């Protein structure tokens, strides 16, 4: 299937049109079509062959002609022309948080700045003092700093996609590989991909991987390569009786390994990547992870918990949590539709969620003051509710809850009156605007939302964007305390760019008795899958199903909302 390839072409076209400051509606049209094709079950090339491109939602005559040209000629004239006309370095400049398409164009075209390094130098030398105000310049410098400290770490979906590609390559050769490293532990960012195998052919096969740019290392039992994408892949070969020890060692974390090794040393044993060995060097365990943990007198520890945050002691005492799983989730509580800034229609979202086996969802489009996201007024919400009522009649017993992601304004008040908010089934409160307030002011805004009688939960409490924007400097211990006092919930937003609350704070919420909701924050049907990333965060936070509010069935959940 070439669906994602075609979607990428349309997305680049949208970006370039936006950079060059042309029709905003075209930009939206290209992005919507791209999204629709990316999430399509049918093969776009097949539809093209049958002349049925316009059956695809959001693909009209103009876009269909472009897809046709692309399939016939392998290129798109307009895209090439736009590329030629775009000043150099613009897409790279846009990777800096705070630099939008228009600013990037201006930097490159008018000011001759064509790389992030250029921008940094120009800012530091004072050359841009007359072009941008001091606040903006500081923001640019911060954006550049974060970009470089994030370095080459990947977000989880990218790492997963790299892993899947590799696993299917090896599998086509009949070679089984096992995932290790931070990806297996479910960390929110991943440095490199670690693979283990017991098949001796794996070493040769690694240098022959598709997209290898450079072989970094090659020995009898290990191979490391760098892919064209920049990703490093470390592959190691072990004997079958060693695989469990190797999996524990290379899954890490390093701190978890050290804690385990110390435990072995206390018993006079030795633990390394080859297994667990007794006083005379005899093998005690190693073929499977279960065997190694058991020999150490421990319960099996899920990879998500292996961070040396108390899991070793809990395991020795038989007190590990019974971690929440994706199957426990009964409903998704944050998502957007074309009513605000989503790419899929309300009914598509609802039907796709029902197909995924949920009992309910909350449709939570943005409220009126979030203009960039086409936030809804009271009057538009009332119209949306009519559509929801119709859908609920059609989809019962599945239920679409009337929800809102209501904006916490800069003074801490909410976008709507209390009496209107009370008419919603579910109210999540978010802070998307005025980030540059003092930490005290930002915290006060969150606290006032958490003391509002209509609010059910606080959405993505820090508003971080991983690798792009540090979370707001709000006092999360006060947020947890206020949620506890007022009987509110906190969100784990499963969008892999957010994962907010993170594992540390979600655990704190649980320990303080504050229920958590895990949801997708989907802006298209495909993103409904984000819930799984949120569940991984919840597992890393030691959460059991009972601490996650939306593991309840519809009736229990509504009862909880009161
Ligand atoms: P990453 O790749 O930065 O996201 O994080 P990891 O955890 O995947 O780290 P990586 O790829 O450097 O190494 C994989 C695992 O190998 C790591 O989690 C634990 C283990 N490991 C690596 N170096 C050491 C070490 O010096 N001592 C111990 N005990 N374990 C190590
Ligand atoms: Ca790694
Ligand atoms: Ca590695
Ligand atoms: Zn949001």
| CATH-derived topology of the largest domain | TIM Barrel
Strand order of the largest sheet: 11-12-13-14-15-16-17
Mean pLDDT: 94
Share of β-strand residues:
5-15%
C-alpha-based Rg, rounded: 26 Å
Describe this structure in words.
With 562 residues, this protein is an alpha/beta fold. The chain has four domains: 3-150, DNA polymerase beta, N-terminal domain-like (DNA polymerase, domain 1), CATH 1.10.150; 154-237, Beta Polymerase, domain 2 (2-Layer Sandwich), CATH 3.30.460.10; 241-316, DNA polymerase, thumb domain (Beta Polymerase, domain 3), CATH 3.30.210.10; 326-561, Metal-dependent hydrolases (TIM Barrel). It has 24 helices and 17 strands. A seven-stranded parallel beta sheet has the order 11-12-13-14-15-16-17. A five-stranded mixed beta sheet has the order 2-4-7-6-5, with helices on both faces. The chain binds 2'-deoxyguanosine-5'-triphosphate, calcium ion (2 copies) and zinc ion (ZN). 2'-deoxyguanosine-5'-triphosphate binds at residues 181-182, 190-192, 194, 249-250, 252-254, 257-258.
Concise summary:
With 562 residues, the chain is an alpha/beta fold. 43% of the residues lie in helices and 13% in strands.
How are the elements arranged and paired?
Blueprint: H1 3-19, H2 24-38, H3 44-49, H4 61-73, H5 77-85, H6 90-93, H7 101-109, H8 116-124, H9 134-150, E1 154-155, H10 156-172, E2 178-179, H11 181-185, E3 189-190, E4 193-197, H12 202-207, E5 212-218, E6 222-227, E7 232-237, H13 243-251, H14 254-266, E8 270-272, E9 275-277, E10 283-285, H15 289-295, H16 311-316, E11 331-332, H17 346-355, E12 360-366, H18 378-395, E13 399-407, H19 418-421, E14 426-430, H20 439-450, E15 457-458, H21 476-486, E16 489-493, H22 503-511, E17 516-519, H23 531-540, H24 554-561
